[in-house]
Amino acid sequence: MEDDHTPEKSVDMDDVLEQLEELSEKVDDEDEREEVQKTVSMVEQLPFVRTIERYTTRDMAQAFVGSIIISLPLLVEDGVYDIANHFLSATFYGIPVFLVGNFLFIVVMASGLLYWSDIRNVRIHEPLFGVLPRRLLGVLLISLLTATLTMTLWGRVDWTYPDVAFARISVIWTAAAFGAALGDILPGQGGGQDVNDVIREILRREK
User: Fold this and answer.
1) Pair 97, 91: CB distance under 8 Å
2) Cα(66)–Cα(182) distance, integer angstroms
3) Which helix (H) or strand (E) holds 14?
4) Reported pTM
5) Rounded to whole angstroms, what are the CA distances from 88 to 77, 98, 140, 165, 167?
6) pLDDT by residue (tens digit) across 120-174?
């Protein structure tokens, strides 16, 4: 005899999150909407929830920490200069092919870690202009800014020669992007506000 209390199918946590998001959009009261968003954040941080969808302010902070941790040891290595010189050594119609190739490698590596690896199920949510994935763009920009800031702060670049400076920064950027991608997805879905919600709130206040 079958147990009448046995559910016909297991609950899909993605469906639960989707229902909560729909509820958040339907709620008119600001306090109630905030409570729903807190519930969403709590559910997303449960250990068995592997799907990452929203891109939040905490995700950005985690990407920054990851980029610092991975790239910091390389800042004191003089091998960065040798690699940068190699990036600029071969040109095709004035274009440094190795430097361009390294940029493409950074984009492909970050994309692979975020969307193609089996570490987490990362979904593209509300892409910019309907095309650009916010998480990928955030990882690339945060890691680039981190590499540029630390290399400049520690006196590892001379901006008198911008091409040489960028070549050196790109070496650190490679490691920083790797760390940023891992720092973003390894902890799971980050709490905090969705980046788009933060931007909308800022624009609303300015009006």
Assistant:
1) yes
2) 7
3) helix 13-26
4) 0.71
5) 19, 7, 22, 11, 7
6) 667 777 777 778 888 899 999 999 999 999 999 999 999 999 999 999 999 999 9
